[in-house]
Every structure is written in C-alpha cells, then in structure tokens.
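Give me structure tokens for this 227-residue protein.
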Amino acid sequence: MKEIATLLRRVNRRLLKAYGKPSRSPLPLDNKEDPLDEVIYITLTQRTHGPGSSQAYENLKRRFPEWRRIREAPVEYVYSAVEPSGLASLKTKRIVRIVNDVAQREKTVSLDFLRSLSDDEVQRVLTKELRVGQKTARAVMMYSLGRDVFPADTHCLRILRRLGAIPMNLKHETANRRIEDVVPPGIRYDLHVNMVHHGRAICTGRNPKCAACMLDDMCPKVGLRDQ
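Here you go.
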C-alpha cells in the first residue's frame, strides 16, 4: 500500500505540472458549490457524453430557479428540460424523487444542512436516505462541501487500473467505498480533477495516446486492451 501511495504522489506531481493546480473557486469541470445543485448535475451527467448534461442542467435552472418548484411542475415539463442529457425518463424520475425526499426530510428543498455533518453522516444521508450512488455522494462531499475525499469516476478508475493501483475487476461502487485506502489524503482534490482532464485528453477509454502521456514510463498499462 505504501508503494501505491508513493506512486500516486508521483503521478499527482506530474499531472500538476501538465495541467496546473485545480481551482476551488470557481470549481472546475462544471461542478457546483451548492450541494443540491451538485446532486442534480451529477445525476444528469450519468452515462452521458458531450455537452448534453450541461445543457440539461441549464434548462432546469432556467425553468426552476428554485428546485422546490419541480414538485409543482408537470413531469413532462421536467422531462423536456432533462432530455438533452439522454436517459431522460430515468433521470427525470430520479431528480423528482430526490427533490421530494429532501423536502420531506427537511421541510425545505436544500442540502445546506450537510455542511454541519461529519463525513460519515453526510455519506449516510446521501446514500441511504436520498439513495444516490457512492460516486455522486463523494462528488458532493469534495466539490460542494470541501471534504478530503476522492470520487472515483470513470476516468479516475481507468487510470488507476492501468497504473496497477487498483485491481482490474474492482467495480465502481466498491471502488468508491475503498478508494481512500489507496489515494493519500491531501492530494485527492488535485489528483481527481487532473485525472479527469487526463482521462479525457490522453488516457482515453479507446486508443489512448500513450506516446504523448507524461505517465508512460511509470505505467504498466494493465488491461490496456480491455478498456
């Protein structure tokens, strides 16, 4: 485990040199400072490629400046806003359910109360009470609440697998429960953001640009042909 931590610190230094130190204000990657905004935005990004999720989020924000208004709106009105993100029926149901669950829990449609909770309590509320996934919960914790956690999204998991830092068969939900045993504290925010940049630009799922990769000399390319 110590060897993996050392490897990831080296990786972090090289990614910082290549992509710079990620900002916390404004947040990178279209992530949101408000925790409920972030939950809804991440829901829209799931299984979506391209600008569709950002367009859907902008549509929703224009139609519902206050999320509580979703509770009063016809579902078709929510659906048509969500549609650019794909899987609109599923995502519409999830967003309406989340808004209703928050309202029933807090009597107001806000997740600001999470700021006063411990990491374990935030994790429990998001995953158990609001029924969002581990990655979504950690994205809210890191981006909106400033917690030292590591959301393991598709790009991060791909790079960690190829580096040999985590097993190839480690599933997304399991990885998001165990990833902080692997990624050292203190570098998690920078490493996550820059791994997303790197996964989009260089270490892509198909046809990765290994010749242009600043990590090539330390990467055993585990399972490269399977990604």
